Amino acid sequence: MPHIITSLCLRDGACLDVCPSEAIVPGFPIAEWPWYFIDQDSCIDCGACVTECPLEAIFEEDEVPDAYEMSAGQGRAIFGQITVENGELVPTKYEGGEVVDLTPDIQVNYDFFEKGPGHDAAP
Ligand code: SF4
Questions:
Q1: Domain residues for 28?
Q2: What is the DSSP string of 70-120?
Q3: Does the beta carbon of 78 sit less than 6 angstroms from any atom of ligand 1?
């Protein structure tokens, strides 16, 4: 089952170091594509990135939660709710307890590779 990086990703980058197939790429430009994406054609579904991600942002496609309760101080790098200061992502911080639907991220991941960065698919 393909793996998906959701909008919980804040570009920590730990996944890049463990992926054996170089399937993970950063979105660009950063303000428009603030998280990483997984190329479904390159991913071998080893699961290494899932356990490495400190933000628990990566899921198997059929396990992406449609009701995810965010913890206090957790950031979410969704379009239009981040700023870039000195090249660093500054995401909106949440109080915790907020329930978000991560399932739309599945299509965003596929769109990134099918259409390329910068297309008009931002939610
Ligand atoms: S599941 Fe394995 S191959 Fe696929 S993106 Fe994660 S680390 Fe790379």
A1: 3-115
A2: PPTT-EE--TTSEEEETTEEEEEE--S--EE--THHHHHHHHHHHH-TT-S
A3: no
